[in-house]
Design brief:
Strand content: 15-25%
Strand order of the largest sheet: 3-2-1-4
Helix content: 25-40%
Radius of gyration: 13 Å
Largest sheet: 4 strands, parallel
Distance between the termini: 18 Å
C-alpha cells in the first residue's frame, strides 16, 4: 500500500453493522503529526455521535496534533514503547466498544468505510 492510497474493504462485500452498535476506531501513531489531522477528519466524517476514536500516540508531536482536533469522540492514550502492537493493545484496552476498526495514519478512508468493515 502506498502512502495516501484510498482503502476499500477486502474483496468480499460485508453487510453494514446494525446502527446501534457502538464502534471504536483505533489508530497507532508515531511521527505522524502531519498526517493525523487529515486522517482524523476523514475518520470522524464517517462516524456516529456515539462512536469513538482512540489514538495511541508514540511521540509528543503526534499527541499534540490529536489535541488540536476539537471533537469529544477523540481520545489519546500514551504509547511510551512506540511499538505498533503495543499501541493497538493500549487503544483497544481504552475502549469498551464491541466493534473495533484499525486505521493507520497514512490511510485515506473513503466515506462509509467503518460501516462496511
Amino acid at each position: 500500500m502506498s502512502r495516501g492510497e484510498v482503502l476499500e474493504p477486502p474483496g468480499r462485500s460485508l453487510p453494514p453493522l446494525p446502527e446501534r452498535v457502538r464502534r471504536a476506531v483505533v489508530i497507532p501513531a508515531l511521527d505522524a503529526a502531519d498526517l493525523l489531522p487529515g486522517c482524523l477528519e476523514r475518520v470522524l466524517a464517517g462516524l456516529r455521535p456515539d462512536d469513538e476514536v482512540v489514538v495511541a500516540a508514540g511521540d509528543d508531536e503526534s499527541a499534540a496534533a490529536v489535541r488540536e482536533v476539537d471533537d469529544p469522540r477523540v481520545r489519546i492514550v500514551d504509547n511510551p514503547r512506540t511499538a505498533t502492537p503495543t499501541a493497538l493493545n493500549l487503544a483497544i484496552a481504552a475502549t469498551s466498544a464491541p466493534v473495533v476498526v484499525r486505521v493507520d495514519t497514512a490511510s485515506r478512508v473513503p466515506p462509509g468505510y467503518v460501516d462496511r468493515v
